[in-house]
Design brief:
elongated; mainly alpha; two-stranded antiparallel sheet; 4% strand
């Protein structure tokens, strides 16, 4: 079976070929090989684009299915909640604390004591806690750095690229 050459290998071959001195290889032969490698890189890139688009379509389909399933789950959870509330009300109305069946048992029990805050502004400061969140405003920092200002611990980065597939 024929071994396929990866995009990585093609890229390395192209770089190596471009570094070869003209005296080591005929310029016309070198040009033809470069053209062949570039054609192969283009074909590999096209295949990679197809695979990426296929994966992206699969991811989108999975996300849509997750949304549909989450909606269905929520509907069923609401049904369960309403059935439990309905059953609780019926048991309270009849004064029954427990019903035993072959499938399972239903019983009422007292809830633990809970605190209800009716007006938070009336609660003394002693019983309040302050939560502080600190975030760095990267957009403002970027604007200042672009204007030539220096900010300790920060720098602009133009070293990376984004891959765009259309």
């Amino acid at each position: 079976m024929e071994k396929t050459i990866s995009l990585y290998e093609l890229s390395n071959d192209l770089l190596e070929l471009m570094d070869i001195e003209d005296c080591e290889i005929n310029e016309e032969v070198k040009s033809q090989i470069i053209e062949q490698i570039e054609t192969m890189i283009e074909a590999k890139s096209e295949n990679i684009i197809a695979v990426i688009k296929n994966y992206e379509a699969t991811v989108n389909a999975i996300k849509e299915e997750e949304k549909r399933l989450a909606t269905n789950r929520k509907v069923i959870e609401n049904k369960v909640s309403r059935l439990k509330e309905y059953t609780k009300e019926c048991l309270e109305k009849t004064g029954k604390k427990k019903v035993e069946t072959k499938l399972g048992n239903i019983s009422l029990r007292k809830k633990p004591v809970s605190v209800i805050i009716e007006d938070e502004s009336l609660v003394p400061e002693l019983y309040k806690t302050v939560k502080e969140v600190v975030t760095v405003d990267k957009n403002t920092i970027k604007d200042f750095l672009k204007k030539g200002m220096e900010i300790e611990g920060c720098r602009l980065s133009e070293e990376d690229y984004n891959l765009t597939i259309k």
